[in-house]
Structures are given as structure tokens and as C-alpha cells.
Amino acid sequence: MILFTGDLFLGNSKIQIDNEILSLINNSNYIVSNFESVWKDDTLPKREDKGSILQFERNSLDNYLSQVKSKLIFTLGNNHIHDLGERGLQQTREFLKNYKNIILFGAGYYSEIIKPYIIESNKKKIAVLCLSTDEPEVMSKLATDKFQGVLDYNDIRISEVIKNIKKTVDYFVIIPHWGREYIDYPAVQIRNKAYSWIDAGADIVIGHHPHVIQGKEQYKGKWIYYSLGNYIFPEFYTKNGLKQSWKPENNQSILLEINFLDNISIKETGLEFDIKSNTLLNNAKSLKIFYNKSKLLDRSLITIKRYFGIWERNYLEKISNQYDESNNIINRYLPKHREYSRLGYFFIRLLKKIKGK
User: Fold this and answer.
1) Which is it for strands 124-131 and 279-282: parallel, antiparallel or unpaired?
2) Structure pTM?
3) N or C end of the chain, less CB within 10 A?
4) How much is the CA Rg of the chain, to the nearest whole Å?
5) Which domains are seen in the chain, by residue range?
6) C-alpha dihedral sign at 338, 340, 341, 347
7) pLDDT at 320
8) What is the pLDDT of residue 136?
């Protein structure tokens, strides 16, 4: 049995896992998570084109590993693995390789990451390929033969790789880091990419990045999970020291329990990460949200043309709300800061503005 989760960020927090969920995790052969952060190093320059720099510390990882005993597979093909540049990626890989219970893949030189990682479970070989994009809604750094990065989901070789590797394995899994953050449904272009991978021979697609649950869809008998949501993701401070506060929907996720036997069997569990106690809990509400969103992805009920209208309205509503919140007078002028009081930070910004900085 292999478990698949959404986005995992540990920061410097001590995470607790509910006993029921922990039992499920520790009864699995592997747990595959998108590891969305870099090893903390204050000497390295931070990415200038990103507002949030996600770093983890040893104590938070050790705390997580003290509870999780199954084999951990961390996929690094995401947009935060370069928060401290290529050197940050290298240090993260070097640091995590010291842990015997952790397997890494998804980031490196192009020649490395174009080759899927092979998991063996229940006497079956499962190929796993991680993808992302440098498009504006994600902004991952792409790998070349001279730069360690992630694999572009627009790479023309992907279909060829799927077809060739599928001849030597039992199943092929695609794990894309994709889509627009906070939007409830995948764009039509995203759906079409998933179809193309299944057309090439992929057996399942399991995505993340939007920080919310999106639905699932069946295409040619194969399942596509567009976003599993935030698995574990404590609140954090941005590069400018401002507090990133999650909404309830950002703390919900889906855990997939997959058995790769003669057929693929999947069990879905709803989760919630309680940001007040930093505890991962079972939550049936998350599962209900997931199923409701999935209904709109059923092409036998909703045509693509009608779906686009639904998606567009949701997109515009979410974007409008984000701008409304950022323009809220308290959020805009008196944001919560790591080091200063709201009023103190306001006067610091005002003084910089007067000085022309």
C-alpha cells in the first residue's frame, strides 16, 4: 500500500498527528508527499521574484520522523525548492539524504529527472514522474544539463518517456505541481494535459500546488486528482516578515491510499490540519468538499463549454476576493508582522516612503 498526500511544509513547527491517521500512515509501505521547502540557511540569497521563502529546520523534520515510521518519499519538483537558489536545492538534497528513511526525487539535472523513479510494491513496479512549470501561476525553475531544477510539464519528451517506460513497469504515475493557487477547479488546459499523459500510457495523475482541494476526474478508466490540498502546512511569515494566515479551506486535504495490484484500488480519506495546535486530524468534511467538486468534472454531466463558464466564474470570484482582502484597510496598512506591532510596522513603512526607499 502506498499513500499519497498533498503539500508538506514543516517549517520550525512541532507537528502532531492524530492516532487514527498515524496508524494508517505507519501501516503503509510508503508515503509520498510534495516536500515544499528548503533546508534553512540564512547565508544564502533568497529568490527575489517570490514573496514567500519556505525553509524547514532539523527539529521539525526530526519531530515528524519520530512519529512517521513508514518509508517517506519526498518529491522535490515544486516552486519552492529554489527559494534559496540552486545551492539551496543542493543543500536540501544533501541534508535529507542523511536520513535512511527518506527517498528523494523530482529535482536535479535534466538527465536525472527525465527518468522516472521506480517504486516496488506488492511485486509490482510503479514508475513515478514529477512535473512542474515556469509559467507565472507556478514559477518553478526548470532543469537543464547544467542547472539543477524541475521537469517542465510542457517538455515534448514526456509522452515518449511514458510510452517507453510503461513497457518495463506495471504502472505509471504522474505527479504534477501545477495550476493557479486558491482556485477550486482546474483550468481546461490543465485537464487537457492530464488527458495527454493518460493517452500516452499513464495510469493515474496526482497533483498539488493550489493549496486547496480540487476534484477528481475519470478519463479512459484512469483517475486524475487535480489537487490534494495542503497536507501539513503551518502558517508562516513571508520574506517581508508579514504573516501568511490560512483560511479553513487551505487546511483541508485528501489522503490517497492506493494498492497497486492486478488493478489499482484507491481509498480516499479527508484530512484537516489544525493550525492552532499544529495537529493533523481526520475530517469527513474535507471528503464531502472533494466529492462535490468532483461532480463538476464529470464530462458525462457537464460539457467542457459549460464547465469553462463555471470555472471562469469561480476564478473571477476568487481573484476578486483576494484583491478585496489585500485592499482591506487593516490588511493593507496594518498587517501582522514577525518583529513589529501593526502600528509600529505602519510607521516604519511610512518613514521609508518619506525617505524614498
Assistant:
1) unpaired
2) 0.92
3) C
4) 20
5) 2-300 (3.60.21), 303-357 (no CATH)
6) negative
7) 84
8) 95
